[in-house]
Every structure is written in structure tokens, then in C-alpha cells.
């Protein structure tokens, strides 16, 4: 049976995107966290997802590599349907780098060993090849002089940069960042964001859940604002951050940029835009 025009358009759209999410729902018991998300990230695009705590941002990110199983909906990564029961999810995950709030480095291994263990066990690289890749990526994040150090000997910012290098050593096609600077002291944030800026400049596809509005403004191709499990507003950074159209977006940004701001009584009303 030949495909209809609409079917061909759907296949083309999915295959052109690095990430495609359609009608995604996620519930934890009776709590519905994601309420029908339609979302995409194009190849080479940097998308920053912002919003208040509990809005579903991190759950969306975790669904994209099936760290959380969607309740319903579809997710494609590089054209592969992650919700297909026959998909090789481990193979798909090898193309996705994930950086968490916490660094999750093995404390008993050196920085170099933290970067080589997955390469050797998952990608089956030789020790010499894995170490060469590890050294190149530690150089990339400014930690070439910390290869023999252990995580406890590093600052929080250095540990996060090591975690980014560990993900990069696997050769991912895209990177997911879940508030990578939220656990850092303010003076350590800059070096991590600089590494992320460099990755964006290299053309890495990136989805970043962040509360760093200056990073989103400077680096993102598109900003997505989530609240209460839905996407409220999205667009170019200068539009969403500079001239938001929705009252909920305006109120959120006012509170983030001015912590003393008092919430509008109409901010939760989707019609108040």
C-alpha cells in the first residue's frame, strides 16, 4: 500500500529532527506530570527549557532517553521510535549524552578512569584508544591537568566538567543537560557554562533544562517555557525572554529576574495573555 501525502510528511518531519515528541503524557500514580507535550529539537539546534520547579522539565528530559517510561505518546531520537517495544534502547542511548544536576562520578576511580570505563565496557574500545579519547575530551573541557585526580580532589565545577567530558567521550549525537549548574556554588557556574557555550559553537545538538537565563538568552536557538506539565510558550530567546506573550511566562521571568516580585493573581489563567 502506498503512503498518503500526510504519512510521507510525518516520516519526513520525524527523520529530520534529532528529537521529536508527540502527545507525550507521563503520570506517577494519580499525579499527571506531563499533559500532552509536542516538542522537537532539530539537528544542530540548542533548545533551553525553562520553567518553575514541578513544571515537568526534568521529567520531559528523562523521558527522552527512557529513564522514565512515558504513560502514552511517542518519542523519536534520530528517527528511531523509542516507544517501539522492539527498539534497541541501549543502542539509542549510546547516541545520547546525559549530564545531571549531580555529577555521578565514581569516587574510587581517577578522572581518567571515570572517562574510560564506559568506553571500554560499552563501546569495547581498547585501553589505549579509550585513554586517548578521554585525554582529548578532558583537554576539551579544560581538565587535562586533572587526569590522575580523584573526584573528591576536584571542585564542584571541575566535577561537572569531568561529567560532561565523560559523556562526550562516548561520541554522542546529542547532549541532554538537566540543570547542570544548579548544584554548584555561584562562582563555579561560569566555567561549566563556558564549556557548554563551546559545544554549542561546535554545532552540538543540545537540550538544556536550565535556570540560567543569561545562558538561554545568549546561546539558545529556541527557548521553551513549561508550566504545570504543558508547554506554555516557545520561540527565539529575544521573543520569549524579551517580550513574552503569555502572562504565566511574564510572571515567571519577573520572579526569576526580580525575586521580590509579587505574582500576578491572573498568572495561572491560560486565557490571561
Structure in words:
This protein has 273 residues and is α/β, with parallel strands linked by helices. It has ten helices and ten strands. It has helices spanning 5-16, 57-64, 89-93, 111-122, 127-140, 156-168, 186-201, 213-219, 237-240, 247-257; strands at residues 17-28, 31-42, 46-50, 72-77, 80-81, 96-99, 174-178, 205-209, 222-227, 230-235. Strands 6-7-8-3-9-10 form a six-stranded mixed sheet, with helices on both faces. A hairpin with a 2-residue loop joins strand 9 and strand 10. Helix 4 packs parallel to helix 6 (156-168) and helix 6 runs parallel beside helix 7. The longest helix is centred in the C-terminal third of the chain and has 16 residues, at 186-201.
